Amino acid sequence: MSAREAMLARLRGAHPDKAEADALLVAPDRRAVDEGALETEFLARIALPSVSATHDIIERLDELPVAVGRYLEQQGEPLTLCLPPDPRLSACDWSGFTLRESAAPEETAALAIARKGIAETGSLIFETSPHAPMLPNFLALHHIVLLAAGDIAPWLEDALLPGPQPRAHYWVTGVSGTTDIEGTYVRGAHGPRFLHVILLR
C-alpha cells in the first residue's frame, strides 16, 4: 500500500468523536478575566511578549504631555510628536514639543486616543474621524496611545461601540512583526516598532 493509499484509508475509516464534534458547535470558552480588576488584567496582557507594550499611568489629562515627554526621553528620542487635531489633546500644554499635524514616512512618534481597550487580549480599538486620522498610527516608530481606564472592556464581545459607527475602526494588539525574513522575528515590519499605552485614571 502506498503512502497516499494509507492516508486515504485512514481518512475513510475516521469516525469523529460525537462529544468532540458537538463541542465545536458551542462558542469557545473565554479566557478568564477578573471583571473587578480590569485595569490590572489589561496591563498584564499588554506586558506579554505577544503584545510587547509598555505603559504609564496618569491621573489627569493635563499630565499627558509630561508622560509623553518622559517616554520619549527614556527612548532617547527628540520631543517631536505627530498630534491628531483632537480638541481634548490640543487643550494640553505641549510647549517644548515640536508638533506635526501629519505624519512623515519616518515619523518618530504619533499620539492617538483609543476608543476601547480589551482586558482579555490587550487589544486597543481605534476609530477614524476628522479628529482621529488613521495613517499616523501606522507610520510612526513609536505609537503612543491614550486610553481611559473606564474604557477597558473585559472581553472581545463587549467591544461593540455604541452609537453611530465611524467610517472605519481598527484593532491593534501589540507591535507589528514578521518572521518572513529568513525565519527571524523582525519587530515593526508592518508598522510601529514600539507601543506605549498611557492609562488615564
Structure description:
- With 201 residues, the protein is α/β, with parallel strands linked by helices.
- 23% of the residues lie in helices and 24% in strands.
- It contains 6 helices and 12 strands.
- The strands form 4 sheets. It has a 4-stranded parallel sheet with strand order 1-12-7-4.
- Strand 10 (177-178) and strand 11 (186-187) form a beta hairpin.
- The mean pLDDT is 87.
What order do the helices and strands follow?
Answer: HHHEHEHEEEEHEEEEEE
Distance between the termini: 68 Å
Uncertain regions: pLDDT < 50 for 5+ in a row? none
Strand content: 15-25%
> What portion of residues is helical?
10-25%
Compute the average pLDDT: 87
**Order of strands across the main sheet:** 1-12-7-4
Pick out its properties:
201 residues, alpha/beta, 4-stranded parallel β-sheet, elongated
Topology diagram in text:
Elements: H1 3-13, H2 18-24, H3 38-46, E1 53-58, H4 64-74, E2 80-82, H5 87-90, E3 98-100, E4 109-113, E5 116-118, E6 123-127, H6 136-139, E7 142-148, E8 152-153, E9 169-172, E10 177-178, E11 186-187, E12 194-200
Parallel strand pairs: 1-12, 2-3, 4-7, 5-8, 7-12
Antiparallel strand pairs: 5-6, 6-9, 10-11
Concise structural overview:
This protein has 201 residues and is an alpha/beta fold.
